[in-house]
C-alpha cells in the first residue's frame, strides 16, 4: 500500500517534471538494494522502501553537484526529513530545490531506533505510529543514569573500543563541517587508535548538540557498537526542556545555541575568541 | 550528473565488507557502507570508507610498458601480448617448463586466479604457481588439513557474537580486521570473556578481560600448559574425544612434558593465570579461538596452528555454531586465491596435483597434459631467480616489500631473464620488470572474492580502468590465446561455471545465486544453501586428529650483538605494501612516514626521543626509521609495520622457513637499535 502510493507520487513528480529526479532505494535485477536516483518513471517498478537507509546526506551531495536549478525529490522517513530541514537551516540545501515524499515508519522500526517521531511532518504515504520514549529504555538508562563517576566509567569503557573509522562522522547526515575538527591535529592525534576519548567523541557530540535529529545513523555505522545516539539524547532533552527547541521540526526556528551567540546576548557575558567554529567570519 | 551507486566488496582485508561506490560521470568519487551486507551491516573501517581514494590517482599505469635500459617505454597491447607469449615460450623451450614461475594474487578475483593457474599449468606443464598466502596462512592450510581435513576458518564471522569465551591469540583484530572486532564486542556485551594473547599491547588486549603478554614465540608452551591443566582437571570433553577424535593417548603422553610450571617459565606468565584462562576456555559452553599472523609467521608456524587445533578439539569446541577456529585471512581474496589452486601442490578445490585420478580429471577437462610434480613456492620462485627459474609472471603481488630479507629479494628480481609484472601502479616490484601490463583495480572489474568465512561474493564493476589499462581477466584471456590456449571466455561468470564443474566444494556456485548475500562453501550443488560452519557431525577428514606439536623457539633470538626482539605487522590506516593506502589521502594523513615502536625504557637507554630517527640493524640489513615511544611494546621489543617503502621492515626480517609450510619467520628476529645522528 504505502509502497504503491509512494511509487504513484514519485511517478507523478517525474512525469510532471516537478523534479529532475526522485532519490530513494532500488532493488535491482540481482535483488541488491542500494540508493538510486530515479530519473525515468519506468524504473520506479524497482523502488523499495526498506531497509531504513538515511538518504539526506547523499541527497545533499547530489544537489550540491547539480546545476543550480536542479530540483530533487527525496523519499524520506521522519529522520531524513528532519535532517534535510537542518541542512536547509545550515544553508547546505536550497529549500526551493527540494521536494520530499514522506513515508511513515513501522512500530517495530520505531522500537529499534528508539524514535520519538517515527514519521515526517509532511507525511505522504503510510500511517503514523506512535513514538517511543528513549529514556524509558533500559539500555539508555544504563548509560545515562548513575553518578558522574559511574557514567564516566561506563562511557570510557565503551569509547576505548573506538577504531577511528570516522564512520559516525561520515554517516551523520548533519556532520558536514569542512574542515572537520576531527581532522585537526590540535584535537585528534593522527596515527593512533583508539582516539582520545574526550576530544574525538565529545567534539563530535557537541558539534551536533543542537542539530542532531536522533536518526541513529552514527550508532548504526559504528563497527564496535558504541551507543553514540545515547550521547546525543540527553542534549536533545535539555534543549527541549530548557528552550522548547527541537532540531529538524521546522526550517524557521533557529537553534537557541546559535541565537544566543549571534543575537544580542541577554547578559553581559563575554565569549572567548575561539568560539567561532559556528561559521562566523573573523572580520580582521 | 546522475550519480550511480554500485554495490561491491571492499578491496582490503579478508573480512569482505560490503561497499557502495558512488560514480559520477564514470568516475568513482565516494564510498559508503552497505546496510544490507551480511557481514558489515552498514559499517566499515577507515580503509573501507576510503576505498575509492586511490582509484583515480595520477600514478595509475595506463599503458603497457617495455623496459629500455633504465626507463620504460609505452607500447601497444598488440605488441605487449605477443612479446610476453614468445618470451615465455622461448624460455620454456630452452630451459623446460619448470623454468617458468607464476605469482598469482590474493587481490585479484577468483576467476582471475583460476585463469592464472590454468595458464601457467597448461601452457608450461609446471606447477610453479603460488601467491602471498605463503606469507600469511600457509601454516593454517597445512596444519588444519592435517588435523581437521580443511584449512578454512571453521565458522562464520557472525557466529562469534554467540560465543561464551573468545580466545584471541596473535591477532590485532581491532586494527587488521576491524569489523570482526565488532562481533567480538557483541559477544562481550552478552557476557563472553575475551582473552587476548599478544606480546604487544593492542586495542584488542586493552579491551580484553585478560591479557597474556607472553614472550615472543612462546605460543606452544602456553597452549600446552593450558591443555595439560585442562586434562589434569578433567575439563576435557571426553565424549567428543571418544566419538570424534583420534590420537588422544599420544597427546596426553606428550603433554606430560608440559606441566604448567614449565609453560609459565617459558612464556613469562604466572602459573595461576595460565590455569585460569585454561579453565575459562574449557568451561565456557562454546569457545572460539581467533588467530592470525602472530601464530603463523613463525618458523614453527605449522606447529603453532596444530596446537591451537589440539586445544579446540580437546575441549570439543569445534563443530558447533558459536565455537570454532578462526584463522582470520589477511587479503580480501586470499581465501579465494587458495581455493582456486593458485598453490603449487593443488588444483582448484584443494585437489592434489600428485593424485593421478585428479590429474586425469583436469587433463580431460582442460584438454592438455599436466605435471604431477608439485611446484615451487613464492620464496623459492624468487630465491631461484636466474637459476632454476628463468622467467616469471607476477600478477598484482609486491614481493619487493612483502617478502623477508628484501636485499636478497631485490637481487633476485634483477636476475630473471624475463619478468612480467601486471599491476595498477608501478610498484617496487614492477620497477624490476621487463614488461608491465597495466591492470584494473577492484572497482573496475566484475567477478567474485571469497572472504575469510568462505563466502563467495560478487564484485561489480563501477568504472572503466584508466587509459589503456585492462581488466586482469581480459589480459589473462589475451595472453592465454597468444599461448594457443582455448581462453575464449566471454565473461567471468563463464569462468565461475567452469570452476564449479571441476571443484566439488564450489559445485553449486554461480553468479546468479550470489545476489546480495553470497554463498559460503562447501556448496556442492545448485540446491545447497551454503555452509555456515564446518565439521558439524563429522570432520572433513572423518575423525579429528590430535597431532603432537614440535616446539621450536624462534630461530634467531636476541644476543649480545643484536639484543632486541624485532617483530613486524600492520597498523590501522595502512595496508600491506601501501601501494593503495599510501595513495589514499585520508589514510595517508593518519600516518605519513615509516615508524617503529620502542619501549620508553629502551628509548631512554638509547637516549632517543619520540619522533627522532633510529637505525635498526639485523644480520640482513638496516633501515632508518622514526621512533615512536610507547608502552605498547615491552622492554626489549621493537615493532615495525611493513607498509613503508622508504624503510622496509622486511630488509630486516629473517627468511628462515617453517619446514611444514615454508612460511618465513616475520614475527621474530634479533635486532640492534641505535640512535641515528641527525646530521648524518
Ligand atoms: S529514526 Fe524514526 S523516523 Fe528514522 S527510521 Fe527510525 S523510526 Fe523511522
Ligand atoms: S543521531 Fe547521530 S547521525 Fe543522527 S543526527 Fe544525531 S549525531 Fe547525527
Ligand atoms: S563510528 Fe564508532 S569506531 Fe568509528 S570513529 Fe565513530 S565511535 Fe569510533
Ligand atoms: S574490515 Fe576489512 S573488508 Fe571491512 S572495510 Fe575494513 S578493510 Fe575493508
Q: How many domains comprise the coordinates of chain A?
A: 2
Main CATH class of the largest domain in chain B: Alpha Beta
Largest sheet of chain B: 7 strands, mixed
- What is the total tally of β strands of chain A? 5
Based on CA atoms alone, the radius of gyration of chain B comes out at 24 Å
Oligomer: heterodimer
CATH fold category name of the largest domain in chain B: Rossmann fold
> So what's the overall shape of chain B?
globular
Structural class of chain B: alpha/beta
- Estimated helix fraction of chain A: 25-40%
Mean pLDDT of chain A: 83
Quote the distance from N terminus to C terminus of chain A. 58 Å
Q: What topology, given as strand order, has the largest sheet of chain B? A: 5-4-18-17-16-6-7
Search tags:
heterodimer; A: 284 residues; alpha/beta; 2 domains; 5-stranded mixed beta sheet; 5 strands; 37% helix; 9% strand; disordered C terminus; B: 680 residues; N-terminal domain of TfIIb; Rossmann fold; Dimethylsulfoxide Reductase, domain 2; 4 domains; 7-stranded mixed beta sheet; 6-stranded mixed beta sheet; binds iron/sulfur cluster
What does the secondary structure layout of this molecule look like, with pairings?
The complex is a heterodimer of chains A (284) and B (680).
Chain A: H1 2-15, E1 21-27, E2 33-38, E3 47-48, H2 56-64, E4 72-76, H3 78-89, E5 98-102, H4 107-113, H5 138-144, H6 148-159, H7 167-171, H8 197-207, H9 217-221, H10 228-243, H11 256-262
Parallel strand pairs in A: 1-4, 4-5
Antiparallel strand pairs in A: 1-2, 1-3
Chain B: E1 4-9, E2 18-24, E3 27-33, H1 46-49, E4 65-68, E5 71-74, H2 77-95, E6 100-103, H3 110-124, E7 129-130, H4 138-147, E8 165-169, H5 173-176, H6 178-189, E9 193-197, H7 203-207, E10 210-212, H8 219-232, H9 238-244, E11 245-246, H10 248-254, H11 260-267, H12 271-283, E12 287-291, H13 293-296, H14 301-314, E13 324-327, H15 334-339, E14 346-347, E15 351-352, H16 356-366, H17 378-383, E16 391-395, H18 399-402, H19 406-415, E17 418-423, E18 435-438, E19 447-450, E20 455-459, H20 472-482, H21 492-502, H22 511-514, E21 519-520, E22 544-545, E23 564-569, H23 585-590, E24 595-598, H24 600-606, E25 613-617, E26 622-629, E27 637-641, E28 654-657, E29 664-665, E30 669-675
Parallel strand pairs in B: 6-7, 6-16, 8-9, 8-12, 9-10, 11-22, 12-13, 16-17, 17-18, 23-27, 24-26
Antiparallel strand pairs in B: 1-2, 2-3, 4-5, 4-18, 14-15, 19-20, 20-21, 23-30, 25-26, 25-30, 28-29
Residues 171-175, 208, 212-218, 228-229, 232 of chain A line the site of one iron/sulfur cluster (SF4).
